[in-house]
Design goal:
Elements: H1 2-38, H2 42-51, E1 56-61, H3 62-65, H4 68-77, E2 81-82, E3 89-90, E4 96-97, H5 98-103, H6 105-115, H7 130-136, H8 138-145, H9 149-162, E5 167-171, H10 183-195, H11 198-214, H12 218-233, E6 242-250, H13 255-271, E7 277-283, H14 289-293, H15 295-308, E8 313-318, H16 334-340, E9 346-349, H17 359-368, E10 372-375, H18 377-384, H19 393-398, E11 403-405, H20 410-413, H21 417-427, H22 432-444, H23 450-478
Parallel strand pairs: 1-5, 5-6, 6-7, 7-8, 8-9, 9-10, 10-11
Antiparallel strand pairs: 2-3, 2-4
Helix pairs in contact: 1-23, 2-21, 10-11, 11-13, 13-15, 16-17
Length: 479
């Protein structure tokens, strides 16, 4: 009987010992993190965060995630050349080959500077504005990025695994709609955004839907789009890494194009029964004239389509603005409208929240409805000039809004997810436990299926146990 009692109690004893060990490792890891942060040891923080499990990157653009060097390699494989006046790719025999470019250090470096943010902060003469430079880069490599989707995703996966990232939710492509819409309906839509007559506007939307669904090429365009995603994604997922896609529309296009693309995006998410495609976004510079003019209209499009497709998750670029970029009154409503009108499930950037007239109500709504905000520190600093204590990350945290740390466009910005955590730790007063919670947020607030989230969280817990054990062991031995 005593023997049976001992056997019964043994698992409980093992569990207590294990918990004590994990608790001690966590405590030592916290002490070590506090030490290097207090000392301002950014090299130490970089090594720490390189090894730390980072969960997911939820604000991620495929074409902007790849480095210019990769695009040049692909251009060489296709036999393309570089025009040294425009720095664009073409096939003109008078232009320089990619191999010749690589042997010319000055020209090679110039391409990196034009095609990314490389060395931008070291030069101040005759430069285009930072935001314009950032968004212009996509015009140089955008076309070639489409020719190597699978290779690009493999490279993104390889880089993610090297820096201990388990999940990426990227914006790869959007449905290419060949639908011809009635110009009169479009004129009516533009006029209605001035009167704000949503009843008549939604009737126009319904007419657009009927025209899209009646188009003989629509179903094929949806099928081709989904097939393209699956072809690109083949063999990307494994036991250590998962990738999912967001569809998106470009907010600088005419309203009928935006609506047609958004409808195709929402419909594609529903059609994709395997849930490789998990959500819908809207992209492009928010301060663009058309994007600003049609912002209310775009929010109404999302509201209408979310009622039509209630299961579809939406992640919206909103509030990627700052004082001086637009008129002050244009800083007062973007995040609010994305949350209250468009019913966004996540917010990307959210930088102009301090200027919004109903900021407190928006923050309360985001907390109550579990609407996370994606924080992109390097991107916000370069494009908007917002950094340090000017950045609203603390406003969101203090309001109880879930925070997710992301890269935005790692290739253009020439950064990675590790560097974003280093900036977070070195600029703000977050503890190791708080930062660890941000990591778990990147899985909790992803658009994966619940079962996939649960499995990834379980793996993430094991990875943190191993990471903290390694830190505790190294820190103990060093002392």
């Amino acid at each position: 009987m005593k023997f049976r009692t001992i056997l019964f109690l043994l698992p409980v004893v093992v569990l207590i010992v294990s918990c004590n060990k994990h608790g001690r490792n966590l405590e030592i890891t916290e002490r070590y993190f506090d030490k290097i942060k207090h000392e301002g040891d950014n090299a130490g923080l970089t090594m720490f965060f390189t090894q730390m499990p980072k969960g997911g990157d939820l604000h991620h653009h495929y074409s902007g995630a790849l480095y210019a060097e990769t695009y040049l390699d692909w251009a060489g494989k296709k036999g393309l050349r570089i025009n040294t006046d425009s720095w664009r790719l073409d096939t003109n025999r008078s232009d320089i080959t990619i191999d010749s470019l690589k042997r010319n250090t000055a020209l090679y470096r110039k391409v990196l500077e034009v095609w990314s943010d490389e060395d931008f902060s070291d030069n101040f003469h005759l430069q285009e504005p930072p935001d314009q430079h950032f968004f212009n880069t996509f015009g140089y490599f955008g076309n070639i990025s489409k020719d190597f989707y699978h290779a690009g995703l493999e490279e993104i996966k390889d880089e993610a695994e090297k820096e201990n990232v388990q999940y990426i939710e990227t914006m790869l492509n959007f449905p290419h709609m060949g639908v011809k819409l009635n110009p009169a309906l479009n004129d009516s839509m533009e006029n209605l955004q001035y009167s704000k007559d949503t009843v008549r506007l939604y009737k126009v939307f319904s007419s657009f839907v009927n025209a899209i669904e009646a188009d003989p090429g629509y179903n094929k365009s949806e099928t081709d789009y989904i097939k393209e995603l699956y072809t690109a994604h083949e063999s990307i997922d494994d036991t250590a890494f998962t990738m999912r896609f967001q569809a998106y529309a470009v907010r600088t296009l005419p309203p009928e194009n935006v609506f047609a693309t958004l409808y195709g995006c929402f419909d594609a998410v529903v059609r994709d029964k395997s849930a490789l495609l998990v959500g819908v976004n809207i992209v492009a510079p928010e301060n663009n004239y058309i994007a600003m003019r049609d912002y209310w209209l775009h929010m109404q499009m999302f509201r209408y389509l979310k009622k039509m497709f209630p299961s579809v998750k939406t992640d919206m670029h909103a509030g990627e603005l700052c004082l001086g970029m637009v008129k002050p009154q244009d800083l007062t409503y973007h995040i609010h409208d994305a949350v209250f009108t468009a019913n966004a499930d996540r917010i990307g950037h959210g930088v102009d929240i301090p200027y919004e007239t109903e900021a407190q109500a928006t923050l309360k709504k985001m907390k109550a409805d579990s609407i996370a905000v994606e924080i992109n520190l390097t991107s916000n600093e370069f494009i908007l000039g917002v950094k340090g204590n000017d950045h609203p990350v603390n406003l969101y945290y203090d309001a109880g809004v879930a925070i997710v740390i992301s890269t935005d466009d790692a290739g253009v910005s020439r950064n990675n997810l590790t560097s974003q955590y280093v900036l977070l730790a070195s600029r703000y007063h977050y503890s190791y436990q708080q930062i660890k919670a941000f990591v778990f947020n990147s899985i909790t607030y992803s658009f994966m299926k619940p079962a996939e989230k649960a499995a990834l969280k379980e793996k993430l817990n094991r990875k943190f146990d191993a990471f903290e054990a390694a830190i505790a062991n190294d820190y103990h031995n060093s002392k």
